Amino acid sequence: MASKEKPLPANAQEHAIQYSLPEEKIAQGFAHLQHFSPAERSTRANSFLLKSIIFGFCGIIVPPHIIYPIAGIIVGFIGQAARKREKYLFLGGSVTCPACSSTEKIPKTNEQFPFLHFCSQCSARGEVSCPTLSDNL
Fold it and tell me: Cα–Cα–Cα angle for 126, 27, 118, nearest 5°?
């Protein structure tokens, strides 16, 4: 049976990550990040805005009629601003849990580093960070 995992984009890069627990236990792992140039960020942001406005106006046929276009415009502008700030997209990774030593797959997310992750085996809450990632991408 074929794997359900999608192939990584061409501009995806592998980075070392750390999974640290509050008890100061740290484990190393890796993650795939898709980096965006300023032009790509602008394109993604404008695409989100356009889709939000179109879906909002398509909702005009469903009562209450005026709320959906207004909500589409507001959500579109907020989402556009958020997408313009995204410098990378976390495509997933793998790390060993320092508490139970199980291999933990971290799924794709829109979160920026550092973010929290719960181990699927022991439910330990840890912080995932990327020390090799510079802030000025």
Answer: 25
The reported pTM is 0.69
> Tell me: the pLDDT tens digits for 19-35?
888 888 888 899 888 88
Instruction: Let me know how long the chain is.
Output: 137
Q: What is the DSSP string of 35-69?
A: E--HHHHHHHHHHHHHHHHHHHHHGGGSSSTTHHH
For residue 94, the cross-strand partners are: 30, 105
Residue with tokens 């020390």: 131
What is the per-residue pLDDT across 72-85, written as a single tens digit (0 to 9) for each?
899 999 999 988 88
Query: Six-digit token pair at 27?
Result: 């484990």
